[in-house]
């Protein structure tokens, strides 16, 4: 009898997994330049949204609506959020990561007061759910910041915690990319993290003949590293999306 129960459990798991794998789903990405697709003249700069699709089966489609320099405020004001809502379907996912530009107090078109920031995230959740889609909130990926003693520090202020609060209050799936990227950068250290970011010497790239020292945006390798952090958190979540990883990721 025990063997029979085990066999039925394995069979049921196989059937459920097969059902998930046969369903097409779209992941919409809402966010800033750390996610966005880059122009050829900006390469090797790469957004992690360009890499997330490699971890999933062919049933998952990625629609990257993220844009350089956008905050929750400007993303809404420019109609970019509405464009996602006009396209999303039942069972799709909307990944939402902001915070880098919302704190830009000197740039009025971007700056979002913390109260408004939290309300914008609530708006994102409510409107996504109204379309029978699944919101996934993502805290902002860390910038590369180390002090004179080589100790890592964060510059995002209160914004990651506001996202965590909304996730808890509204019972929304949270990918704490701030936490996972911070852990990774501390583990790698100041020197090794250079391999992730858009840090170039003169002559390394024709797009940056004088070199580049960008500690916010990623190179091709770095974008994949960050996308894997996102993928790893999905694997550990209760999201049905965890059933859609490609065979190399299972």
CATH class: Alpha Beta
**What is the share of helical residues?**
25-40%
Instruction: Count all strands and give the number.
Output: 7
Please summarize the sheet with the most strands: 5 strands, parallel
Strand content: 5-15%
Contiguous helical run count: 7
Which residues form runs of ≥5 with pLDDT under 50? 3-20
User: What do we call the CATH topology?
Assistant: Rossmann fold
Q: Supply Rg.
A: 19 Å
Basic shape: globular
What order do the helices and strands come in, and which of them pair?
Blueprint: H1 2-21, E1 25-31, E2 60-64, H2 72-77, H3 80-87, E3 93-97, H4 114-130, E4 134-138, H5 159-169, E5 173-175, H6 177-192, E6 197-200, E7 212-218, H7 220-235
Helix pairs in contact: 4-5
List keywords for this structure.
250 residues; 7 helices; five-stranded parallel sheet; two-stranded antiparallel ribbon; disordered N terminus; globular; Rossmann fold
Explain how this protein is built.
- This protein is an alpha/beta fold and 250 residues long.
- It has a single domain, classed as SGNH hydrolase (Rossmann fold).
- The chain is 38% helix and 14% strand.
- It is built from seven helices and seven strands.
- Strands 2-1-3-4-5 form a five-stranded parallel sheet, sandwiched between helices. Strands 6-7 form a two-stranded antiparallel ribbon.
- Helix 4 links the parallel strand 3 and strand 4.
- Helix 4 packs parallel to helix 5.
- The longest helix has 20 residues.
- The chain is globular, with a radius of gyration of 19 Å.
- The chain starts with a helix and ends in a 15-residue tail after the last helix.
- The N terminus is likely disordered.
């Amino acid at each position: 009898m025990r063997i029979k129960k085990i066999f039925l459990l394995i069979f049921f798991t196989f059937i459920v997994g097969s059902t998930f794998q046969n369903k097409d789903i779209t992941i919409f990405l809402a966010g800033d330049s750390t996610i966005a697709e880059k122009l050829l003249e900006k390469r090797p700069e790469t957004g992690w949204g360009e890499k997330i699709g490699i971890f999933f089966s062919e049933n998952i489609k990625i629609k990257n609506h993220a844009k350089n320099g956008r905050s929750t405020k400007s993303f809404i004001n420019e109609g970019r959020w509405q464009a996602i809502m006009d396209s999303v379907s039942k069972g799709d996912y909307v990944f939402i990561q902001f915070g880098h530009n919302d704190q830009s107090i000197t740039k009025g078109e971007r700056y979002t007061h913390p109260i408004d920031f939290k309300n914008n995230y609530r708006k994102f959740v409510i409107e996504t759910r109204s379309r029978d889609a699944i919101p996934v909130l993502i805290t902002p990926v860390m910038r590369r910041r180390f002090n004179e003693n080589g100790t890592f520090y964060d510059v995002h202020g209160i914004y990651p915690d506001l996202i965590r609060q909304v996730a808890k209050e509204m019972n929304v799936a949270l990918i704490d990319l701030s936490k996972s990227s911070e852990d990774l950068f501390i583990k790698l250290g100041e020197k090794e993290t250079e391999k992730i970011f858009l840090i170039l010497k003169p002559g390394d790239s024709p797009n940056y003949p004088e070199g580049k020292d960008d500690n916010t945006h990623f190179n091709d390798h770095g974008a994949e590293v960050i996308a894997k952090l996102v993928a790893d958190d999905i694997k550990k979540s209760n999201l049905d999306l965890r059933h859609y990883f490609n065979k190399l990721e299972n």
